[in-house]
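Consider the tokenized backbone below.
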């Protein structure tokens, strides 16, 4: 296997996605030979200007993974679900869990391959009251209410098993990722809501915000320099939902009232709307996550991987600028 400082052939799943496209761009710029496993109809707009090898396939198809991984020295697994409509669907287990099992199965056939799995800070823990968690924190959530977090934790357990069987496997746990080119409005939808709502409605909860380039740098550094069997939180500043709204409005130069709705009222209203199939300003699947604090300690990634993370304002400002430029807010 080549030294980590030299060019490698790296397979990326989800390389056309919000985070994946930035990872692919950085890998190509660093001189690596990048191979992307993509569906035939995958939108590759964000990476269409780059030189990479496209392999048609799917993480749910073991044979296509075998073909894509052949000859690779490293693999970054980003393919997952990002649509809240799919959170409680059978796709969660099929894509997140079974797809990851397929990745690990194919990788088991390749000697000395380096594996990097992108999990989520939601897989670490959340709390009712503000509390900061690290990579070793116990999970106290009722995971039956958090299928996404539960699925990601299951994948992390599979990675641990592969590590104990001799594979080099590292896991990263990004916070809430913001940045330009969020064309599917994965997180920028929050900023659009702040820009268009009057008053701005928030709940009691909190999140860790992180800039997309910092996450991409963290993924690449963790692949090459992370310790096998370890997880690394890739996160920036911790903010309450109210602080996130206030900072966003400040950057947008908009003056609006912010009203905080009691979580119990929001949860009850969301349940009624879901049962009656009524339109609701917040997707019902989002509510259990929005009403918890997901506050993270990034010191391990800083100390072991030499990473630095932008503050919240420097994270949100380029995203908001992009939203203005694209006409999504005015």
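A designed sequence for it:
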């Amino acid at each position: 296997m080549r030294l980590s400082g030299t060019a490698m052939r790296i397979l990326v799943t989800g390389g056309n996605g919000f985070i994946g496209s930035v990872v692919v761009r950085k890998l190509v710029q660093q001189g690596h030979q990048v191979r992307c496993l993509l569906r035939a109809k995958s939108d590759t707009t964000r990476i269409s200007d780059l030189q990479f090898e496209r392999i048609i396939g799917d993480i749910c198809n073991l044979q296509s993974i075998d073909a894509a991984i052949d000859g690779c020295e490293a693999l970054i697994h980003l393919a997952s679900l990002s649509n809240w409509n799919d959170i409680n669907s059978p796709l969660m287990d099929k894509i997140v869990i079974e797809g990851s099992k397929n990745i690990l199965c194919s990788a088991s056939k390749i000697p000395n391959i380096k594996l990097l799995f992108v999990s989520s800070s939601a897989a670490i823990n959340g709390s009712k009251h503000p509390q900061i968690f690290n990579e070793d924190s116990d999970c106290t959530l009722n995971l039956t209410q958090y299928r996404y977090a539960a699925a990601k934790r299951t994948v992390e357990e599979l990675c641990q098993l592969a590590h104990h069987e001799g594979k080099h496997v590292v896991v990263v746990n990004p916070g809430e990722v913001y940045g330009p080119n969020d064309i599917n409005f994965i997180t920028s939808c929050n900023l659009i809501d702040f820009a268009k709502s009057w008053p701005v409605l928030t709940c009691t909860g909190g999140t860790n915000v992180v800039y997309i380039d910092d996450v991409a740098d963290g993924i690449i550094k963790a692949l090459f320099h992370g310790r096998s069997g370890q997880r690394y939180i890739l996160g920036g500043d911790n903010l309450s939902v109210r602080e996130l709204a206030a900072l966003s409005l400040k950057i947008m130069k908009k003056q609006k009232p912010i009203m905080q709705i009691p979580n119990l009222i929001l949860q009850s209203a969301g349940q009624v709307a879901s049962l009656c199939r009524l339109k609701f300003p917040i997707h019902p699947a989002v509510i259990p996550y929005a009403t918890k604090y997901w506050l993270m300690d990034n010191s391990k990634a800083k100390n072991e991987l030499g990473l630095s993370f932008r503050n919240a304002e420097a994270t949100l400002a380029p995203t908001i600028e992009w939203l203005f430029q694209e006409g999504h807010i005015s």
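The longest strand covers residues 168-174.
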